[in-house]
């Protein structure tokens, strides 16, 4: 079973909406906790458990890109997609690369469809 299936897409969507409503706790460098997932609700531990921990760096860079608003959302998402693909291609086993690519593809779809919710969102927004 893949990390991000349809049920998880729905759960993440609800979490994003809830995060926006409760205005999650801010850290010192960003309006949100940096990582893979909205606000404090990350899937970082799951990625590490799957041997895909290197993807977290891509998520952190994507969060920072959304925060600083220097690039468009599409440019941030394109950079995110490129980073995820590169990290997946660096994995050693063929099987790991395949599963990573599936998970990365789902993560890319998620930010492209729902990223507008948090793109350039001000801390008190």
TrEMBL record:
Tagged with keyword Lipid metabolism: no
One Gene Ontology cellular component annotation held by this UniProt entry: extracellular region
Gene3D superfamilies from the UniProt entry: Phospholipase A2 domain (1.20.90.10)
GO molecular function: calcium ion binding; phospholipase A2 activity
Signal peptide: 1-24
UniProt keywords, alphabetically: Signal
Keyword Signal: yes
Protein's UniProt name: Uncharacterized protein
Record SUPFAM superfamilies: Phospholipase A2, PLA2
A single BP term in Gene Ontology: arachidonate secretion
Entries under InterPro entries matching the protein: PLA2G12 (IPR010711), PLipase_A2_dom_sf (IPR036444)
């Amino acid at each position: 079973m893949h990390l991000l299936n349809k049920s998880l897409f729905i759960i993440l969507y609800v979490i994003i909406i809830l995060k926006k409503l409760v205005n999650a706790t801010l850290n010192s460098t960003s309006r949100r906790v940096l990582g893979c997932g909205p606000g404090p609700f990350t899937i970082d531990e799951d990625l590490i458990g799957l041997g895909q921990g290197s993807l977290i760096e891509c998520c952190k860079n994507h969060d920072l890109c959304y925060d600083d608003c220097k690039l468009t959302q599409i440019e941030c998402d394109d950079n995110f997609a490129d980073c995820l693909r590169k990290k997946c291609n660096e994995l050693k086993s063929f099987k790991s690369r395949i599963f990573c690519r599936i998970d990365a593809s789902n993560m890319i779809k998620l930010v492209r469809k729902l990223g507008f919710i948090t793109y350039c969102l001000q801390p008190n927004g």
